TrEMBL record:
Entry keyword Membrane: yes
Pfam annotation, one family: BPD_transp_1
Keyword Transmembrane helix: yes
InterPro entries, sorted: ABC_transporter_permease (IPR051393), MetI-like (IPR000515), MetI-like_sf (IPR035906)
Protein's name according to its UniProt entry: Raffinose/stachyose/melibiose transport system permease protein
Keywords: Cell membrane, Membrane, Transmembrane, Transmembrane helix, Transport
Topology in membrane: Multi-pass membrane protein
Subcellular location as annotated: Cell membrane
Annotated CDD domains: TM_PBP2
Residues in ABC transmembrane type-1 domain copies: 69-281
Membrane spanning stretches: 9-31, 73-95, 107-126, 164-183, 204-225, 265-286
Family: Belongs to the binding-protein-dependent transport system permease family.
Organism: Paenibacillus barengoltzii J12
Length: 294
């Protein structure tokens, strides 16, 4: 069997099916999108008119496009600066629970397996200005109702909170698995030496789980760049485009307006921005993270 696996022909036969699928469903669509981005095409007709870089020039001159880029940046900043610290905090809390740990893990993981449409509708009721839970709580303190999804000052924050609520549990389970994999002897030795719980968390647990935290940040950034479904369900990019992200901006032109070439140009820009951000993160942060084995 080992001799057979060393044969280049046998090895190629094992690799070929996966390689074919990778090329068909990843490499080809990327190059096809790049090709279409240089055309003026409605996505239906057989004829394409090549217009060079006009689609990219049009996007860079459109203020609505840059507003959608800004909203994607809001997604990234909210994920990295608020969501990730909360993920680590709640993971540490659950890891130190003595009873019903499985119940807590299941409870926090539940939103991530729910449909985004269901979550959008659920939080739409919570944000309802007339009978929503948020305004009822504010009313207890005498604060007037807030139009969460129809006020440009609050709509984006409302979506960010909803998106974080959906995916925080998924990342908590990942971080929690890393925490529980740390040998208990390290924590017990620190406790014997007189270290408090906070000191053990900061000086032992956090350094040991930094690799998985880096993965969580990478996944959050990638998710922020392709965010679209939660926006479409809750606001459709409104009010007045204040919650538009690059993906919803692309959908509006590629599907609704039948400007398929322009939509492909936006898709290529999303792909390029994602590659640049993740590459910078890899260079500036991940490679400098100390790898600790235990």
């Amino acid at each position: 069997m080992n001799k057979a696996l060393r044969s280049p022909l046998i090895y190629s036969l094992f690799v070929l099916p996966a390689l074919i699928l990778f090329v068909a469903f990843f490499i080809y669509p990327i190059f096809n999108a790049i090709n279409n981005s240089f055309t003026s095409w409605n996505g239906i007709s057989k004829h394409m008119t090549y217009i060079g870089l006009d689609n990219y020039e049009m996007a860079f001159k459109d203020q609505a496009f840059w507003k959608s880029v800004r909203n994607n940046v809001y997604f990234i900043l909210f994920s990295c600066l608020i969501q990730v610290p909360l993920i680590v905090f709640f993971s540490l809390l659950i890891a130190n629970v003595k009873k019903l740990k499985g119940l807590y893990k299941t409870a926090v993981f539940m939103p991530s397996i729910m449909s985004t449409a269901v979550i959008g509708i659920l939080w739409g009721f919570i944000y309802n200005p007339d009978f929503g839970l948020m305004n009822q709580v504010l009313g207890i303190f005498g604060i007037p109702p807030v139009y969460w999804l129809s006020d440009k000052n609050w709509a984006m924050l409302s979506i960010l909170i909803t998106n974080a609520w959906q995916w925080t549990g998924f990342y908590i389970v990942m971080v929690l698995a890393a925490i529980l994999a740390i040998p208990r002897e390290l924590d017990e030795a620190a406790a014997i030496d007189g270290a408090s719980g906070i000191q053990r968390a900061i000086r032992i647990t956090l350094p040991l789980i930094m690799p998985i935290i880096s993965v969580v940040v990478m996944l959050s950034v990638a998710g922020a760049m392709k965010a679209a479904d939660i926006v479409l369900v809750m606001t459709k990019g409104g009010p007045a485009g204040s919650t538009d992200v690059m993906a919803t901006y692309m959908i509006r032109y590629a599907i609704t307006s039948f400007r398929h070439g322009f939509g492909n140009a936006i898709a290529v820009l999303i792909f390029a921005f994602t590659i640049i951000i993740t590459a910078l993160y890899q260079i500036l942060v991940v490679r400098r993270t100390e790898r600790i084995e235990y």
